[in-house]
Amino acid sequence: MTPKKSSSPKPLVDVDMDRVVQHTTFRVFRYSGTGDPPTYKEYEVPTKRGMTVLDGLLWIKENLDGSLAYRASCRMGVCGSCAMMINGKPRLACQTQILDLNTTVVTVEPLKNYPVIKDLVPELEPLFEKHEAVKPYVMRPGDEQELENPSGEFEQSPEELNEFIQFTYCIKCGICLAACPTVASDPLFLGPQALAQAYRYTVDTRDGAYAERCDLVDSAHGVWRCHYAGACTEACPKGVDPALAIQLLKKKVFQHRVLGKRRKVARVAPKPVGVSRRPNIPEPPARTVAKKE
Predict the structure, then answer these.
(1) Which residue of 69, 156, 221, 272 sits 20 to 30 Å from the alpha carbon of 184, by its own alpha carbon?
(2) Which tens digit of pLDDT belongs to each residue from 99-144?
(3) Contact indicator for 112, 124 with CB cutoff of 8 Å
């Protein structure tokens, strides 16, 4: 006989009790978001090798307490959604294995330096507002038509690319702001994530807004508020090193303000001579996002 298929969905975390190495106590921050004071609640999680903190939270939600709120998506360290405080340090829950913490008690809290919506869910609007404030995209003042309707590629050497490629790996998880002591004391500080991205575009030779972006970060709550604690770099799960980017950005701002230095902007690469577009290559699709006015 063919066994009947179960109508219940497959569990997100399947723990084989024969492979359990230890029972871990999860001490989880709970906050209803209704104004009641936050509390901590403890859950016992059977732990096998390879289980991450996110796996533990998924197991709690599926087996012990369905009301627990947290963010998670890719489960592979790419989306940044599951950033939270784990035993006092900001980390990605999906990249933190329980047994690597070398303890049987795991304290899980929402990221520091953000308002809390519910349980382990922080309000990340400040992160994205600061990110947007530094204009993290290529701008070409006086040459907007080329961006709107490109006629070719912008020239850029491998050496020019290497100046900023490390800082393109940011996944906007918000961990660096949670680790930053200056953000803790100055909520208006742009923070390591935004400043690192400001540097990333400031040195990108395809961008023509060098002076404008230097002026944006040269403010009371901008680049000079960084005291180079380095906590952001230590906490960054992708090795972006925002502390380095901020120090390099200070140099660029100084050169712009004091020395009046400008940067050459990449030109459009000339089209190959004697080469035509192949007929079987489709045209690019229409834009799906309207330009923000």
Answers:
(1) 69
(2) 999 999 999 999 999 999 999 999 999 999 999 999 999 999 988 8
(3) no
Task: State the Cα–Cα distance between residues 256 and 244, nearest whole angstrom.
Answer: 19
CA distance 96 to 57: 12
CA distances from 288 to 43, 137, 147, 188, 293 (A): 45, 17, 16, 33, 15
Q: How far apart are CA 77 and CA 93, in angstroms?
A: 9
Weakest-pLDDT range from 34-38, 198-202, 238-242: 34-38
- The pLDDT of residue 275 is 85
274's tokens: 């004697």
At residue 74's C-alpha, the angle toward residues 103 and 124, to 5°, is 85
> Which runs of consecutive H residues, i.e. helices, occur in 204-280?
210-217, 231-235, 242-257
Instruction: Tokens for 196, please give them.
Output: 């690192």
CATH number of 17-122: 3.10.20.30
The domain spans of the chain are 17-122, 125-257
Q: How far is CA 55 from CA 9, 52, 72, 75, 230, in A?
A: 17, 5, 10, 9, 30
Second-level CATH architecture of 125-257: Orthogonal Bundle (1.10)
Q: Which residues of 29-42 are buried (b: 16+ CB within 10 A; e: fewer)?
A: bbbeeeeeeeeeee
Each residue of 242-258: pLDDT tens digit? 999 999 999 999 999 99
Q: Contact 53/106 with Cβ under 8 angstroms?
A: yes
| Four-point Cα dihedral 141, 147, 148, 150, nearest 10 | 140
Domains 17-122 and 125-257 fall in the same CATH topology: no
Q: For the chain, what is the radius of gyration of the CA atoms?
A: 24
Give 71-103 pLDDT, tens digit per residue.
999 999 999 999 999 999 999 999 999 999 999
